[in-house]
Amino acid sequence: MQKLSVNQIIKKIESEETFHAVSNDYSFTIKIESYVPYACAAIHDGHQFRKELWDNCMHSAYERWYEEDPETKNMIVNHPIVIAGCDSRFEYDLNRPPEEAVFETAWGKQLWKTPLNKQMKLKSIEKHANFYRVVKALITKLEEVFQVCVVYDIHSYNWQRWNREVPTWNLGTSNIDNNRFNICVEAWRQRLSEIELPNNIKQTAKINDTFQGNGYFLKFITNNFKNTLVLATEIAKVYCDEYNQIMYPEVVNAVANALNKSLPEHASEFYKMYSK
Asked: Which of 64, 74, 125, 155 has the most CB atoms around its CB within 10 Å?
């Protein structure tokens, strides 16, 4: 892995180079092993929280971890194109628009003891902007090469906070072109429902059951690119004990192994269907 500036990363993408890099401010990683008509993203995987914010933050490290999407990068790490956030969404949220990316309150609780000054906010917003410069360059290149593209936007959610039965997998589709892509969406839901997980974890997959796909990452790509489908894919945190902060690596591994097979197959079907 190389440490590269955002401009260097974009130049490599535009030249169709393969590479594995971390941004020079360590805010995100990107890997391109080969140029294919699909990409994977884990934008909430990160837990980094810059030190100058620690003493001013009212949320504990555990409270931040609870709302992040730990291990989501590891679930997709073997695919040819992977982009992932390294920083906590409590510093800035890549799934919110720039003007809302730096929280004042988070999940009903004030975030800062004293409000952040303009300089502190700008540091975070600049990281947000740089990430989206790279996303734009990446999807531009994939559409240029393949005409169409599908992005698997992987998240996780806290299923135990719900007071009803919720699915293992949820697809949020309210902001995509469902008339055009509904067959592909249902095929992805079906594949997710067939994944087998250890520890007798029940497998269900539904559409717009817990989340509707209102994230900025999906909207940014959908609004800027007419031939790219973003599949906002949430797994319930059945792969950890969300109250005691214990990871279940055997479950994470099972998810990764299942996606190693089902995700490229689905992407291939998508490409055959929509590249004509």
From this structure: 155
Q: What integer pLDDT is reported at residue 90 of this predicted model?
A: 92
The per-residue DSSP string of 202-236 comes to ---EEESSS-----HHHHHHHHH-TTEEEEEEEEE
* Beta strand residue intervals within the chain, DSSP E: 2-4, 19-23, 28-32, 38-42, 81-85, 105-106, 109-110, 149-157, 169-172, 205-207, 228-236, 240-241, 246-247
Residue 162 has pLDDT above 90, yes or no: no
Q: Which domain holds residue 225?
A: 2-274
Domain count along the chain: 1
Residue 228 bridge partners (DSSP): 149
CATH number for 38: 3.40.630.40
Give the model confidence (pLDDT) of 117-155 as tens digits.
999 999 999 999 999 999 999 999 999 999 999 999 999
